[in-house]
Each structure stands twice: as C-alpha cells, then as structure tokens.
Amino acid sequence: MTKINKDLVYDPIHDLKLDLYQNETSGKKQVSIILIHGGGWFRGSKDNETQLAAKLLEAGYNVIVPDYRLAPPSFYPAPLKDMNQVYNWIQDKFPESKIAAVGTSVGGTMAVELAIKYGIPAVSLSGIFDIEKWILKHHDVKAKLSSGKGETPEDQQKINESFYKGFIMNYLNNDEKLLEQATPYYRVKKTTGPVYLFNSLSELAPLSGVLKMEKSLIKKQVPTWVQFIPGTGHGGDYALSVVEDIANFIEKY
Q1: For 142-155, how does the pLDDT look when each residue is reduced to its tens digit (9 = 90+)?
Q2: Radius of gyration of the chain (CA)
Q3: DSSP codes of every residue in 68-93
Q4: How far apart are alpha carbons 202 and 237 in whole angstroms?
Q5: What is the pTM of this model?
Q6: In terms of residue numbers, what domain contains 204?
Q7: What is the count of structural domains for the chain?
C-alpha cells in the first residue's frame, strides 16, 4: 500500500515544505530516499521530481521530496542547511528507516554533501562538483543565468559555460572567497557514504567534476560507482532510464 502526502512543513521558520511518498508494504526493510531537485540553486521545485518520485515509490521506497531556499535571496550554504533539516525530519518520522539521497543536477551535489556529512548512500545525476578550479580557470567566461541551444557543438559549449559560471556565482552571491568551501570533493572523508555518480558524456555538467569527485572518493576508500551516459542529457533528462541502477545501488549499500 502506498500513499502520497503533499506540502508537509519541515521548517516552519522558512515555511519549507516537502512531499512524502510513503510505501507501507510490509516484509521489507524500510528505506527512505531524499530526492533533491535541481535548478542551479536559483529555480526549480519539488514538483519537478514527481515522475522520478513515483518510480522510486513503485520500487518500494519511501520518497521525501523537499523544496529548499533558492538564491536570491538565500545564498550558499542555505540549501545545505535545509537538507540537514530534512534529514532530521526523516529521522524523527521514520527512526528505524535507512536513509539515502538522490539528486538531479545541483540536487546531486547536495545528495553527495549528505553522504559526506552523514555517511549515507548518495546518487548524483549530473551533479555539480568542479566548482573552485573550474571557475578560476574560466575568468574570461561571461556569467549568465540563462541557457539555450546552440547551432553547433562549439556554440553549445559556450552557452553551457556561461550558464555554469552564472548559476555557481549566483549561488555564492558572487563571492569567490567561498569557492573552496563550496567544492565538495575537498571535504570527502573516510566516513563518507557510498556514492554513485552519473553524467552524460557531452552535457552541461563537466566531466572534470565527476573525475575529481571519483578520485577524492577512491583516495578515501569510499565505495564509488560511476556511469557515463552517451549524449547530452542532463540530470532529469535520463533519470527515469536509470531507476533500476539506482535501486540496485541502494539495495547493495
């Protein structure tokens, strides 16, 4: 038996809400997945993840899909603090449940942040990891908070780079002093939870971020799965096609 409860308040101070997709099937150890939407930390909502949430619910999981504060007016690290609130909410609501995190785009970044902080399994679908080094290497790129389709691969790369720089610097309120602490792979530790990194081969999220994150995880002996997908799809574009892979990973860890 399953049921869906919408707009449950998890942070009354900031009026933040989540949707709870609850699986009440007996005979299986309960697993609660925090499913985190993308949107560059400046747009998007929990409503973006209804299809993926339904698929994970169908696979036998509780799925918790939160909204979080966006920039502006709420800059780094406000969304990360919101995810801590969600984690605590689940622990109170389902104290016997195993917790995992899954996220698309910047939601994948925050899922891995939860793995670093709490040691839980995390799945990132096109997460944003190459932050400090990428930004410092691309000073000549003009930051824009808009994306689009280019006529050629070269045009698309320029559009992607402008957008990538734009949403990262917007998240940091244009403060380059925050670049280092906002880069997750610097903070990987031995207690980090197992991580599954997905990325398309020619998409918005640079492959360099996945490779740097993978290297940091391996250095700390953290179980790490990586899957590169052909094409240009970003995060939610391919999410429904990898639900079985996500489930296999979560079942293992």
Answers
A1: 999 998 888 999 99
A2: 17
A3: ---TTTS-TTHHHHHHHHHHHHHHHH
A4: 13
A5: 0.97
A6: 2-129+184-252
A7: 1
Is residue 146, in this structure, part of any structural domain at all? no
Residue 89: other Cβ atoms inside 10 A = 20
Q: What is the dihedral of CA 138, 144, 150, 152, to 10 degrees?
A: -10
Please, are residues 217 and 119 in contact by the beta-carbon 8 Å criterion? no
Is 195 a member of any domain?
A: yes
In 10 A of CB 149, how many CB atoms? 8
Q: Is residue 148 part of a domain?
A: no
Distances (CA, A) of 245 to 70, 201, 239: 30, 18, 10
Grade residue 41 by pLDDT with cuts at 50, 70 and 90: very high
Helix (H) or strand (E) holding 205: none
Q: For residues 154 and 157, what is the distance between their CA atoms, to the nearest angstrom?
A: 5
Ramachandran category for residue 221: left, alpha or beta (phi over 0 → left; psi -120 to 50 → alpha): left
pLDDT tens-digit map of 186-213: 999 999 999 999 999 999 999 999 999 9
Whether residue 140 is contained in a domain is answered as: no
CATH code of 26's domain: 3.40.50.1820
Residue 135 in tokens: 């930004």
Sorted by sequence, the CB contacts under 8 Å of residue 36 that are 6+ apart come out as: 65, 66, 68, 83, 101, 102, 103, 104, 107, 108, 110, 111
